[in-house]
Specification:
The chain is α+β, with helices and mostly antiparallel strands. The strands form five sheets. The chain has an eight-stranded mixed sheet, with no helix packed on it. The chain has a four-stranded antiparallel sheet with strand order 9-10-15-12, with no helix packed on it. The N terminus is likely disordered. Strand 6 and strand 7 form a beta hairpin. The chain is globular. Bound molecules: arginine (ARG) and zinc ion. Belongs to the peptidase M1 family. One of its GO terms (molecular function) is aminopeptidase activity. It holds the Pfam family Peptidase_M1_N. This is Aminopeptidase N.
Length: 479
């Protein structure tokens, strides 16, 4: 038997993601048997995620009919129990007809709009591997949760892409970034229509004479909100980066006047990703791309390996900056994910700052100039300064301040520690924490350890005070 020193064991334990080690935030240390908690314990979104198990893989085998918006199929979920479990929840909003746990029919009940309660035939002991099969059907566009739907119905299909939740509209999951898993997504659609998802397209096969099945694999840990599905009529382009990564982009055939600008931006994905590798270190996944469905919304989302873009983002011409933003998230957000949703700055502050770095490189304004502009353009009584990027509250999770004031915090850090140390931090963090989860406070500690400087006061000023800082994030003497 191998004897290992205590410190080494401790280091190994630290390497295990919090969700695996502690069964998610939701599991109180006292409770080791009984039903799994209906939430993972995120104060911003109490219903998100669940306690009692940790998913390793989702296999989604689906069929979608654009004319009716009917989505139907089977999800097979591989998980491990993290407590003795008499019952557990899945987050999901479509109609479930049957659930099997380890091949045996389980009891199913529903609570609220998005909680499916599964009672296996016999209690599951802690630490067991379980296979959960969920058969389901429904029209995602008809599912509204608090009056909101994350599903985009388009003239020729539908799209799931939203943050912090989109999974409940199309597959059952443990819907929180603390429980990442790998994905196989296989979707049967009418001939002439494509199904786009994350990762690598493994196969395209005819089903009978009228249907085609698209099978995708995303083989690195992926948060549930970063899983995407887009069905519609697309132009597909493929390429490889100079480093050999496969690129697949998809453009709705219905982009009208925005088509040229969308392609002129997203076709630069490989170039942008390789530039970002110079800033953030090796790209964490094995596929690249982007897709633009014919949705009417105006946001983009860093869906893993293949970001979602809206046509409106290309209405004034090319917008490589949004491509930089979404690709930066592949490191900051997708590989290193939030621990809880209050930590959204570890995603958005860095994605915004990477746009400033791109501008600096392109000679369109330095990060310092952009920071000065943001600081000057919001007067002290602007509501902008009342939002604390380090803990903005669920209602302000995507407030402009999380992005712009969030990036000001990084400019302040850069000026405090100098360029050499700053860029060491930017590259070291996603390398050190790859495929994990992190809190804002973890980043502050990391920056302190790399720079050897106390930085709590600086981050308090830029991330945690509900007031305009009295001094701009000014460059140091002589800069
Ligand atoms: N992470 C996305 C981005 O910054 C934000 C998506 C916000 N969602 C929304 N409905 N506005 O690109
Ligand atoms: Zn973002």
């Amino acid at each position: 038997r191998l004897i290992v020193p205590g410190a080494f064991v401790a280091a190994l334990l630290l390497a295990i993601p919090a969700s695996a080690a502690a069964g998610g935030l939701g599991e109180s240390p006292r409770k080791h048997s009984g039903p799994g908690a209906p939430g993972i314990g995120d104060p911003y979104y109490p219903a998100s995620g669940n306690g009692g198990y940790d998913v390793s893989h989702y296999d989604l085998r689906l069929k979608y009919q654009p004319k009716s918006d009917l989505l139907e199929g089977t999800a097979t979920i591989l998980a491990e129990t993290t407590q003795d479990l008499s019952r557990f929840n899945l987050d999901f909003g479509l109609d479930v007809s049957e659930v099997l746990v380890n091949g045996k029919k389980a009891g199913v009940s529903f609570s609220g709009d998005q909680e499916v309660e599964v009672t296996p035939a016999a209690p599951l002991p802690k630490g067991s591997s379980i296979t959960v099969v969920v058969r389901y059907a429904g029209k995602p566009s008809e599912l509204a949760i608090n009056g909101f739907t994350a599903w985009h119905r388009t003239p020729d299909g539908g799209v799931a892409a939203q943050e912090p939740d989109s999974a409940v509209w199309w597959f059952p999951s443990n819907d929180h970034p603390l429980d990442k898993a790998t994905y196989d997504v296989s979707v049967q659609v009418p001939n002439g229509t494509q199904a786009i998802s994350n990762g690598v397209l493994q196969s395209t096969r005819p089903v009978g004479s009228d249907w085609t099945r698209y099978s995708w694999r995303s083989d690195k840990p992926q948060a549930s909100y970063l899983a995407t599905l887009a069905v519609g009529k697309f132009d597909i382009t493929t390429d490889k980066t100079t480093g050999g990564l496969p690129i697949l982009n998809a453009y709705s055939k219905d982009l009208g006047a925005n088509e040229g600008a969308a392609k002129a931006s997203i076709e630069r994905t490989g170039e942008v990703a390789e530039w970002l590798e110079g800033v953030f270190g090796p790209y964490p996944f094995n596929a690249l791309g982007g897709y633009v469905p014919n949705v009417t919304s105006g946001y983009a989302l860093e869906t893993q390996t293949r970001p979602f873009y809206s046509p409106r983002q290309f209405a004034s011409g090319s917008n490589v900056s949004v491509v930089v933003h979404e690709l930066a998230h592949q490191w900051y957000g997708d590989s290193v994910s939030v621990d809880g949703w209050k930590d959204i700055w570890v995603n958005e502050g860095f994605a915004r700052y990477s746009q400033w770095l791109w501008s600096e490189k392109e000679g369109e304004g330095t990060a310092q100039e952009l920071a000065d502009h943001v600081y000057a353009s919001h007067p002290a009584d602007d509501e902008f300064w009342t939002v604390k990027p380090g803990d903005p509250g669920p209602e302000n999770q995507f407030h402009l301040a999380v992005y712009d004031r969030g990036a000001l915090a990084l400019q302040a850090l850069r000026n405090e520690v100098g360029d050499k140390t700053f860029f060491e931090i930017l590259k070291g963090w996603p390398t050190e924490r790859a495929y994990g989860n992190a809190k804002v406070s973890d980043f502050v500690k990391y920056a302190e350890s790399v720079s050897g400087k106390p930085l709590a006061a600086l981050f308090d000023t830029w991330l945690y005070e509900a007031a305009k800082p009295s001094e701009p994030a000014a460059a140091g003497v002589g800069v």
